[in-house]
Amino acid sequence: MRWTIFYLVILVHLVPVTTLCQLKIVESIPQNLTYPGGSPTHESTFKGWADILNLAKNEVNISSFYMTLKGSDTKTKDPSTKEGEQILTSLKLLGGKGVTIRIVEEISSKGKSDSDQLEKLKLAQVQHLNMSNFGTGGILHTKFIFVDGKHMYVGSANMDWRSLTQVKELGILAINCPTLVQDAAKIFEVYWQLSKPGAKLPHVWPPALSTSFNMQTPMKVDIGGGSNNPYLYLSSAPYTFCPTGRTRDLNALLNVIRSAEKFVWIAVMDYIPAIIYNKPYQFWPVIDDELRRAAIERNINIRVMASYWSHTKEQMLQYLCSLTADSQIKRYPHYGGWIDVKLFEVPVFTPEQKSIPFARVNHNKYMVTDNKGYIGTSNWTGDYFNSTAGVSVTIQQKDGNNSLPQQLRDIFSRDWDSKYAKPIICNGSVF
Ligand SMILES: *[C@@H]1O[C@H](CO)[C@@H](O)[C@H](O)[C@H]1NC(C)=O
Ligand SMILES: *[C@@H]1O[C@H](CO)[C@@H](O)[C@H](O)[C@H]1NC(C)=O
Ligand SMILES: *[C@@H]1O[C@H](CO)[C@@H](O)[C@H](O)[C@H]1NC(C)=O
Ligand SMILES: *[C@@H]1O[C@H](CO)[C@@H](O)[C@H](O)[C@H]1NC(C)=O
Ligand SMILES: *[C@@H]1O[C@H](CO)[C@@H](O)[C@H](O)[C@H]1NC(C)=O
Ligand SMILES: *[C@@H]1O[C@H](CO)[C@@H](O)[C@H](O)[C@H]1NC(C)=O
Ligand SMILES: *[C@@H]1O[C@H](CO)[C@@H](O)[C@H](O)[C@H]1NC(C)=O
């Protein structure tokens, strides 16, 4: 009798814990980048990926710009390549055990990617998406990992060993969240269909790919928080890749800015209000207008934390300086809000770190306001919304103790107030 009660108690405790959806912010913090004790810390991207791959029984679907998970891919010999190599090994083991692995990658990565080897060894089915076939140009830039229709990762991290140990990344991990994950997987299916030989952009997407979860009707995700459960939706770019009901990424982003009541904090690698890759070069002030309007007309305080590294474009610095124009007069109350800009630089501490190509950078692409969070895969230039394939997750959640937006605010503050973020220096008058 006593034992029966004991087992019942265990069951009551176990069942909800093992079946409830878990949503976690995961981060990559570059080697040797440290914060003061007590700063927010999150599970690593590496652990998140390893955990969901460990759960795989049937299927893994990955969409990715490219795949360079081995040190040898970048000619790097360093212990920090180990995590990436471990992920590649997991994929090989899963493929060998008969788990179906599908990878859709950007066409320009063909022949230069670890996926080539997975395909050759028949461990994965690999397809390449050529965005030039669909009238917009651009590239496949979405970073998605799906496992068994229940678990997923989406965020800024490429399938690259550097994204796990040498680049600063932020994403979201969903574990045991079939409704959310199966909705997101419809975006993968769009890439999968369009990367088949001869594929054409359909005039109307099949109804099976449409969604009822969007900006108007986000999905309530039960993470055991009762009335504090979050509401989420995924959005996609370019808009030609959005079946019925799917919110366009640009609209999701603009809506988050428009619905802010107090502040908008943006952490994005690159910010340029122009279409810089597709010819002709075009001014693209869509987001820029929205930010200035929010600050000047609605008293919203805006912080933009862009990234500074050896490849930063001078043009971005000038555009960011222009954003701060009204901050100069923030003392005048009738001007309402202001826009402050800082640049986050990941320091290079060692010669080994210096020798790693395209590393040591803040690659984050998210935004958080007083009422919503937005985790994306895109830089804020016109190209990423007009032509490149990317996605975002928008999250609304009542502020319980540790809501996802609150976690993002804490991460943003940690970084904004850190010694790695410095106010942009705008040189003003030359006289
Ligand atoms: C950087 O991190 C590595 C690996 O954790 C460690 O071995 C090394 O001592 C650190 N170097 C510095 C300069 O902090
Ligand atoms: C991608 O598609 C464009 C236009 O259809 C074509 O010209 C180009 O050769 C394709 N790229 C590759 C690598 O196949
Ligand atoms: C993986 O992708 C294929 C093709 O889009 C789809 O049929 C399958 O359901 C997907 N599986 C998962 C786990 O997302
Ligand atoms: C945007 O982000 C990618 C990586 O996601 C980076 O390599 C690229 O140079 C960035 N900037 C622009 C302006 O595209
Ligand atoms: C890209 O931008 C051009 C010019 O601003 C516009 O005409 C076109 O509709 C846009 N395309 C997409 C897919 O957003
Ligand atoms: C919030 O945190 C406080 C103090 O840590 C705790 O007493 C309370 O139970 C928490 N509330 C919820 C909803 O988790
Ligand atoms: C300001 O001047 C310094 C020194 O000449 C220069 O390095 C920096 O790039 C300038 N900043 C901007 C935003 O023009």
Overview of the molecule:
This protein has 431 residues and is an alpha/beta fold. Helices cover 30% and strands 24% of the residues. It is built from 12 helices and 24 strands. The protein has helices spanning 2-19, 45-54, 82-96, 114-120, 161-165, 178-194, 249-258, 286-298, 314-323, 351-355, 382-386, 404-416; strands spanning 22-28, 43-44, 59-64, 67-68, 100-106, 125-129, 144-147, 151-155, 159-160, 169-175, 219-220, 231-237, 247-248, 263-268, 271-272, 274-275, 282-283, 301-307, 339-344, 365-369, 373-376, 380-381, 390-396, 421-423. Strands 11, 12, 13, 14, 18, 19, 20, 21, 23 and 24 form a 10-stranded mixed β-sheet that branches. Helix 4 (114-120) links the parallel strand 5 (100-106) and strand 6. Helix 2 (45-54) packs parallel to helix 3 and helix 7 (249-258) runs parallel beside helix 8 (286-298). The longest helix is centred in the N-terminal third of the chain and has 18 residues, at 2-19. It is globular and about 65 Å long. It starts with a helix and ends in an 8-residue tail after the last strand. The mean pLDDT is 93. The chain binds 2-acetamido-2-deoxy-beta-D-glucopyranose (7 copies). This is Phospholipase D3-like. Residues 136-163, 358-384 form the PLD phosphodiesterase domain. It holds the Pfam family PLDc. GO terms for molecular function: catalytic activity. Belongs to the phospholipase D family.
